[in-house]
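Figure caption, in words: inputs first, then the predicted bound structure.
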Amino acid sequence: MIATKESTIDIFMKMVENRNPGQAEFQQAVYEVALAVIPFMEKHPEYKKANILERMIEAERIIIFRVPWVDDQGNFRVNRGFRVQMNNAIGPYKGGLRFHPNVTLSVLKFLAFEQVYKNSLTTLPMGGGKGGSDFDPKGKSDNEVMNFCQSFMTELFRHIGKDTDIPAGDIGVGSREIGFLFGQYKRLSNEFNGVLTGKGFAYGGSLIRPEATGYGLLYFVEEMLKLKGDTIRNKKVLISGSGNVAQYAIEKTLVFGGIPITASDSNGFIYDPYGIDAEKLAYLMDLKNKKRGRISEYAEKYGCDYFEGERPWKIPADIALPCAVQNELDEDDANKLVSNGCLLVAEGANMPTTPDAITVLQKNGILYAPGKATNAGGVAVSGLEMSQNSARLYWTREEVEGKLKLIMQSIHTQCIQYGTGADGKIDYLKGANIAGFVRVADAMLAEGHV
Ligand code: NDP
Ligand code: 2IT
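Bound structure ((2Z)-2-iminopentanedioic acid present):
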């Protein structure tokens, strides 16, 4: 029986590799889903008969375009822009834009594919998409970033719309970039609407959207621990990254009484054994969001250790929250977490844990939950921003955060519903993948062969 399942997955993955050659990240994301969904479809032949998984892994549309811009020295520069419109079975395409030199079609296809499942888990009417560019905002002036964003939107605007495709932020795209992109969309379309989320509050943004991914992650962690009769209080927490998700994960960890002891960027990590408190977090936010400096400066300011070129996972702690980038926690890192007695790993980033690392965590009984469940708070509040824009009103912080909390609790419940094994153990990875799949698959069945 097991041998049959394995060979079905092997055959499926060979097809995926042949159709998407060299796209390692996309293949990895599909594999993770296939491991859960293929055995599930064996018991649900209606999905298998309609070839749902094969259809889901093929993007509905991919747009690739040239982005010309001029730097401050007057040099003519060019980058590549993308939008992957993966699936709109349950709502318009929805997902962030990433500006980072490592952006490739493979990276954006993996992100768009995961987004389909994540958005489904939120229970809001949003399909999945992702886009971005290999443009590197690091070291660029505000003027250069604006020029780039205006050029990027000049092509993208004809492919998106408030009921068609609604981009937002991701790595390298924060409130500054969303502002420039929105301004250009408005000029080109002559419309003021909710085509982008993550907007500033002054021009249609939702309260709590900046905080939503990090806060949502901690609400999810609290649910996982509650089930074990435990809480975050007094637990040491490893956090990677120091961008949007990491900053608000640190903030909510403090609210829950946990002790965040690390933060990182692409150069290295800081270890603050006394904990990153509210004052130090304010410094970190100013350093990263305004000065656009390096995390090493935190160590200089507060006299703690800085580890150049390393990742935080070797530091003993109770909880690990990877909040930076894909594949940032590998098998060796997972072994270190196990030997240091870590209890729980929950992903703020998208696909930060490699498949081998996930195996190590699960085999050793560490609670592990995947990003498509745990970091869904960001896109969930983006969905709430869309609702507010459509209704042309603003909700209070309490109203939005209350809804965010309920959505994270509902995602946790869905993971339990589909991920509880015969032995009573919860496999959050399996639960999230099957729950996310079912809603989209049912919509695809209902909508016919589209
Ligand atoms: P930011 O751009 O605000 O921050 C990214 C952080 O990751 C920075 O600290 C950056 O360091 C670090 N980083 C980037 N590349 C690497 C690398 N190769 N190795 C180590 N660190 C790296 O992005 P976000 O905080 O928004 O996104 C972080 C993660 O969360 C991403 O995986 C994203 O897809 C995911 N996510 C984001 C959501 C959102 O609402 N923003 C929602 C759900 C998931 P440096 O400054 O050196 O570049
Ligand atoms: O990965 C993600 O979920 C995001 N970057 C947020 C997407 C969104 O549309 O808010």
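The longest helix spans residues 397-419.
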